[in-house]
Amino acid sequence: MSHEDFEARDKFLFTLEWLLAVTKRYSGGLQFGLAHINFETSRLLGETYGAQKAAQKLDEVAHSLRRSFRKTDLVSREGADFWILLPFAPAEEKLLDKIKYIVDTASESGLQIVERDISIFLLPNDAAKLDASATALEFLAYLKKNHIDLASNEVSLPARE
Fold it and tell me: Which segments constitute the GGDEF domain (predicted)?
């Protein structure tokens, strides 16, 4: 991951921790969206392009996402997973369509060979009631593991040659 990716990840995690603390302290009022984009079978990317080239292609997706969203929206990359934090969540369908278009377009450079799953979470939801001592990383892992039950919307972009 690039230096910019590490900085973006730190900023993202700090902001998410703060938002989770605020939602625990004040019930209601504050809403935000969280989108997860998972490039399935990232090992296939590494085997096809080599680890360095696959990482570079994933960096390009991160940069495309950062350029396409507002300054107040934070994009974080962790391996082949991308998270987008959106204060004051916009209409679900518009967000899903925007992310789907960006990911599909950014994937044209070779990442289309793997399935890409997109999950949209409107928070706070039941996941926000996770143990008060849970970190932002634990919260993200919980969402990723339970995305079928917790996501308000999901779409899968199939792999293509």
Answer: 29-109
